What does this fold into?
Amino acid sequence: MRRYVIAGNWKMNMTPNGAKALINEMKPLVAGKDNCDVVLCVPAIDIPAAVEAAKGSNIKIGAENVHFKASGAYTGEISAEMLCEAGVEYVVIGHSERRQYFGETDQTVNLRTLAALNAGLKAIVCVGETLEQRELGYTETLLKFQTKMALTNVTAEQMKNVIIAYEPVWAIGTGVTATADQADEGNGYVRAAVAEMFGAEVAEATTVQYGGSMNDKNAAELLSKENVDGGLIGGASLKSAAFAAIVEAAQ
Ligand code: PEP
It folds into this structure.
């Protein structure tokens, strides 16, 4: 049985004080919702406040990026060891905004994934096609390629700590959600790529999230699909009631 994971991605929102306040609001709303893991991936500066605020609750804290080197002359970057010591358990890797604005490539996504896994973090690896790629008919090819590139040199054992988020780029932050069938199909392509690399058993056990304008209104339908094992949620994770409703939908 694979585990549902509902993860918020705050992007560049919330100061440390805001993070504390929002988590304190969310804690009672998601308490006892044990049918899924509840994760908030927050800006690096918010991590200490978020970890402190989440203590004693079922909310786990994630980061939004990790560098692939252990240490060195990489100004502005944060290593996996630093994240672990700060109490982080999850990290988002290869989000389309990092690919689009910060030069992230399939190769660096792979290196970051390996660094995160080797440090014992759970990696939320993002893949997804642009609208142009979808319209050209390359969705399956692209999703399989991105998935396989990201997981190169990952072991079957390490796959226990890998979550893949299928996020069609055209649905992120746009208010346009993929239909439940499109989400199921995309997640199915991702799972098929995992099966081609690691076999059917590992693929069946891998959590594949959908992300892209998931909210309190559409979550139940999306999460009802066979291949949708949770969500990576941007905008709606900044509102306690909406995020809690998505967690509830995963029950
Ligand atoms: C995201 O940031 O991964 C995301 C899916 O954003 P939104 O829910 O706002 O579309």
Summary: The pocket of phosphoenolpyruvate is lined by residues 9, 11, 95, 167, 172-173, 211-214, 232-236 (CB under 6 Å). The chain has a mean pLDDT of 97. DSSP finds eleven helices and eight strands in the chain.
